[in-house]
Amino acid sequence: MGKTLAEKILSSHAGHDVRAGELVIVRVDLAYVQDGTGPLTVRQFDKLGFSSLPHPGRAMIFLDHASPSPRQELSNDHKFLRAFCGKTGAILSDVGSGISHNIVSERCAIPGDIIVGADSHTCTNGALCAFTTGMGSTDVAVAMGLGRTWMRVPESWKIVAQGAFPRGVFAKDFMLHLIGMVTADGANYKALEFTGPAMTALSMPGRFTISNMAVECGAKVGLFNADAVTRKYLELLGRPEAFIALAPDPDALYEREIVIDVSTITPTIACPHTVDNAKPVTAVEGMKVDQVFIGTCTNGRLEDFRQAAAILKGRKVAAGVRLLITPVSRRELLDGLADGTFQTLAEAGGIITGPGCGACVGVHEGVLADGEVCLSTQNRNFKGRMGNPNSFIYLASPATAAATALTGKITDPRHFMP
Amino acid sequence: METLRGRAFTFGDGISTDHIAPGRLFHLRSNLPELARHVLEDARPEFASQVRPGDVVVGGNNFGQGSSREHAPTIMKIAGVSAVLAKSFPRIFYRNCINVGLPAIILDTSPIREGDELEISLQEGTIRNHTRGETYTFPPLPAVMANILADGGLVGHIRKHKDFKMT
Q: Is the pLDDT of residue A359 over 80?
């Protein structure tokens, strides 16, 4: 019997053949933390009795959640993390560089890697066919100190996407649709493998959006094959040598197969306060919003901003609506400055912030007032997520976000698309 | 392993780590005793002032969904919670609970009502509901997780064994 992607990658890191259901110790290629989880990791690292990193180049610290710091407590956390990097040689990605997951995509993730991060959206790099998954601070401290962790080899689900994406429907709509179908805990502990013609044709930014949200239906990782699209992405980043073709065996065993014809999906939105509360945008069209946020590790890449800019070009954001634009990384910011995308968004009335997590984590740069409604391209709409438990968050694609910013009401993007 | 005993505080489905350790208190993450004064605040604002050592948090489906913040189970433990029971847990929160030495137990929690007096034996895999005169059973943890929990959490486990003890 052949192997799934998860079984292949975990076998190569366990030193022997492993199968779904087994509990194994695996070698870890990279372990990372961010400024929300990192200070606890560093304190646990000390308590664990570690004094140095066996492989300093395999530990990274990202200052992205409170970036730049809005409070003295967080400034002190940043100082503490910088000092850890100075002492141990862990790689520091400082304020303004961007969100951890995207920096990992840009700089170091390789198909077939195992990467653990103290951030639930570490699964983003499943799009590069790396087994990447979120853990807590202490688990990551151990992974940094020992260079290994334990895992249960997950059962895999094959998600087959048939057809072609229709006008106004994007990777985000597909994923919200899937999560609505599977529910928030439906895929707990599973590995998802995304395949089929619509996934093969999908760009890397679209794949990152999908893998990023695998955790929102409980999955441990959401994997794509390492294929021609992966190869081209790594070449554009200047690291063609990182490419390794990787696909599951044809006779691999799947626990479940879900087939979705993407041509039947319409623009989709997740309503408060759960990601699986997904509906067609038309079901809530006309709902007034106070803020629109385009960015995050889900949808903060240049391709996302171009989709928004195509709708906003030559138009103005509705009076009374704040449009926040936060690029995922400095690289995406620079590319979007060079091609005029951010110029277009600023002319339309968008507020461009520095790269990072921005308003998504409720710390700064767009905390909502009581009773306010935000339409965001982020991955999560839990009560209080954006810093106020008395506010309401809707999740949708950058195109739906842009159309909504124009009218001040939740709007189907197809009204503004040729 | 000790027996755990306390009152049940019941919660509905889908309690997230934002309910337990809200993002707006991000700046308190390096001050866990202070953060613990806000534990579960966005699900039940009065919880932190009512919880007593030994009390048991009883959830529905997918208790602890969302962010990987280990601060969530850590402040539940600091506040005195002796165990968390739920119909299901997302994997990161489940692992974090065990890593911080907070027993996370999967079972059908629907018979348990607010205020019920619960007594949990991890060794026997039983929960006695003294208020209702009922006993519930739960399956044992996988060996590695049972070992971590028996060592008081992952720090104690690794200090003791210098690696993961899988059997």
A: yes
Residues A214 and A310 reside in one and the same domain = no
Q: Which residue in B61, B68, B142 is closest to A37 by CB distance?
A: B68
- Would you tell me which residues 243-272 of chain A have a C-beta closer than 8 angstroms to some C-beta of chain B? none
**pLDDT, tens digit, 9 for 90 and up, residues A189-225:** 999 999 999 999 999 999 999 999 999 999 999 999 9
A19 burial (CB, 10 Å; 0-12 / 13-18 / 19+) is middle
In chain A, which among 77-96 make CB contacts under 8 A with chain B?
A: 77, 80
Cβ-contact A31, A64 below 8 angstroms: no
> Which positions in chain A touch B68 (Cβ < 8 Å)?
37, 117-120, 122, 134-137
CATH number assigned to the domain covering B3-140: 3.20.19.10
C-alpha distances (whole Å) from A42 to each of A76, A84, A96, B74, B127 are 14, 7, 22, 16, 36
- Whether the CB of A75 is below 8 Å from some CB of chain B: the reply is no
Q: Which residues of chain B have pLDDT under 50?
A: none
Q: Which of A241, A261, A281 is the last residue of a domain?
A: A261
Interface residue B77 vs chain A (CB under 8 A): no
pLDDT at A71 over 90: yes
CB-based contact (8 Å) between A418 and chain B?
Answer: no
Question: Mean pLDDT over residues A334-360, rounded?
Answer: 98
Q: Determine contact, residues A398/A373, Cβ cutoff 8 Å.
A: no
CATH number at residue A378: 3.30.499.10
Number of domains in chain A: 2
